[in-house]
Amino acid sequence: MPYWTKLEKLTLTGLAGLALMMFFFPLLAIQAPLVGEQNVSGYDIFSRVRQFSRQVDKSSAQLEKAKPAQQQTPAEEKPPMSLRLAWMVPIEVTVSFMLAIVVFIGAMGKVKVSSLGALWSAVASMLAVLHIMIANSDLHAWLAASFKISAGELKGNPFAGIAEQFGNMMLNAFKLRPGGGLYILVICMVLAALVAKSRILSNFKLVAAEQSASAGN
Q: How far apart are alpha carbons 190 and 127 in whole angstroms?
């Protein structure tokens, strides 16, 4: 079929419209020392991710200064790759929303490019979710390793217990997780991609038409 059926247009525009509404809802939850947990919408996702990255870098610098020079290694000097590439998360989310616009306009204008838009929008949003989860896991693993080294240096020190409590507090102070809006964006665009690629709704219409024709005969 060269064009979308009415049911397909309604479904695709509905899914894309719901996905676009998620721009105003929490896409990302960031927790950092002093500021606490913040829900980030599409308006400020770029600035908040940059702020979070700066805070992680600042904590990293403080940890490095606290270590003896001979115990510092190149692997410990920088955060994990997923954190250094955290600036890509807003780009992945933005690309997903832009392609959702393509789906919305394409479905209304009977343009089949919307099927590709739905597919790549789903891919971009899923990459954003995966990137956030990996970055959060790498962040905690990196901080835990740093504090483990510091705890080894303080073995036998009467303040070792205080240092361990401080380390645990810092581990719980930094968190990065996908927001509910981002999950809904993923679900909507995955469903839109399935509808657009499979044309399953047009098949339902053909079956219904055949049954009506058979009943008429």
A: 12
CA distance 170 to 144: 9
Q: How many CB atoms lie within 10 A of CB 190?
A: 18
Contacts of 160 (CB under 8 A, 6+ apart): 151, 154
Got the DSSP string for 49-104?
HHHHHHHHHHHHHHHHHHS-GGG--HHHHS--HHHHTTTHHHHHHHHHHHHHHHHH
DSSP code of residue 110: T
**Tokens 């719980």 — which residue?**
172
Q: Which residues are CB-contacts of 2 (< 8 A; sequence separation ≥ 6)?
A: 112
Other C-beta atoms closer than 10 Å to the C-beta of 78 total 13
Quickly list H helices, the chain.
6-21, 45-66, 74-77, 81-84, 88-108, 113-153, 160-173, 180-198, 200-216
Question: Could you read off the pLDDT of 43-80 as tens digits, one per residue?
Answer: 888 887 877 777 666 655 555 554 444 444 444 456 78
pTM of the model: 0.76
